[in-house]
Amino acid sequence: MAGKKPKVWVTRGFHSTETRGWWLDLETWAEEPREYVEIQNHYNQKELMPDKYWPTGLFVKYKKGQGTVIKAIKDVCVTRLGIIVISKRFYDLLQQFNLGQTAFRAMPVYGYDRTTRFPEDYYMMQMLEFRSFAQPEEMENVRPSGGEYYYWLPDKPAHKPVLHIPGDHDLDLWMDTEIWNWVFVSDRLKEAIKSEGIKGGGLGFRPCKLVDR
User: Fold this and answer.
1) How confident is the model over 60-89, as pLDDT tens digits?
2) In this structure, how many other beta carbons lie within 10 angstroms of the beta carbon of residue 162?
């Protein structure tokens, strides 16, 4: 008798650009405009970003209301450059799971003046584990991007990504080369996120449908 397939979940929460319904109020800090382009280009590669391209830190973009920004950001968000930023408590939780080569770096957070430092650092997170498990031809609401991947745009609770996962797969967190900007998590990581009350814009989970080839 075949063993029961493990549960796998998918979320957009690691790429949500909204905080309380508005664009994120934290931004990456670089010394010159050209550095922003270099940061973004290297961050989006499927290999570890060289040390010299990691930003100096993060800062609050708007003077008004900056005292409430950290509370609003919660535990996971993304800057306008598309860089994932997580809280220390979320970082500590993730260290208990198999993340493969996914990289982190502590980032100081400064106020609007770029001088006043907030007491707690946040962490930049670079996703470096990619797999090709998704079966877009078996999924609903999938559209070609014109490139190497597909856009998956579910508009009903019943819409699920369809995955074929080999038996030796043991990662708790990864992305798929076939589907743009969705993050897949193991059942045990999803349960830990819920149990610890980790919060973030769009950090909801949809179940995946697992199939045999």
Assistant:
1) 777 766 666 666 667 888 887 788 889 999
2) 17
